[in-house]
Amino acid sequence: MRRDRRIPYLALLLAAALLLPVFGALFFWQTGAASTGEDTITISRKEYERLKKYEMLDEVKNYVDTYFYQKPDEQKLMDGAIQGLLSGLNDAYSFYYPEEAWNKMQEEDKGKYAGIGVQMLGDYETGAVTITRVFRDTPAEAAGLKKGDVFMSVEDIQVTTATMQDAVNIMRGKPGEKVQIEVVRQGEVLPFDLVKADIVVNRVEYKMLDDKVGYIILFEFAGGSADAFTKAYTDLKSKGMKSLIMDLRDNPGGWVDDGVKIADLFLDKTLLYYAEDRDGNQEKFYTTNGKDDIPLIILVNENSASSSEILTAAMKDYHRATIIGVKTFGKGIIQFVIPLSDKKSGFQFTYAQYFSPDGNKVHKEGVTPDIIVEMPEESKNAYFELGSMEDPQLARAYDEAKNTLQ
Asked: Residue 299 pairs with which residues in a beta bridge?
């Protein structure tokens, strides 16, 4: 459910473009004030016609400023106007970060924040928002929340993909704050009262499964994840690893750049994916030389999304890895995260969809593994100890990894 690329230069241009309509009223009223002797501003007809599109918005704002029974909060009006504009895109992945949410998002990306300790994923077709990971030693784990629980409400917000970011903002905050949530589990609505606490997110877990097969779980492509993965990979190599299982199950994605860095470990300079905008313009992204030829197995499931799918799709196209599990989520679109000019807020929006090196569409299609291994119903929400062969998908991946050594 998170952003995929950060483009600073474009961010400044887009931030300026977004703010101009908001201040269009200022130009409009000043231009119309010439007869009173006030300062005037001359603009081109093209700019005038563009700003005139926002005349009704300014009309409503003028009524609110003049007649609303209480003095309006200007910042809240501005926040609502920006969010309203983005909501008109009807895209669950495009939304506004007001100041508090912007700060919380940056904290989360650093892996340290105050909250309840869950990872979630929104389904753009059903609108459902599901818990895909409950972090260890967190309020969520202590309260009994489980992977697979579907959010129903957070405080007074009904949780869907459209309101998911609002729910996240409420669940973040300061240690000691209380939050009420409701989830649906096997058709039953369950209420939970939680107290927020400091959360420290680990990006990877890893171990040697035997003297030759290494195992790395990558939980998300967030701040520092590529470095954490590389450190784990290097450590396992030093312990004699000859084959690697990379576990991307329940990984919702994140920063594409981290995915490119990880792909660099296993591919020489080649096309990793390409992005295509609404006009058909393509932007191509490449790995660099210096690959390791170690045999590679990648585990995926129905919650592997976005950057996870970019990496998986490329490895499948190039036959660089054996993909095991079930078809991935199918989030094949990329978002910009844009800081606004006040340096306190920002927004994200979808700018393109991406395709695998062979031109395979991922959005709403997903990536189909080479070897399909379904998770038994009774095990779908189970916690397995790191590297446990009671996990049937991991057990199948381990067998495949051993075969690569023969």
From this structure: 247, 324
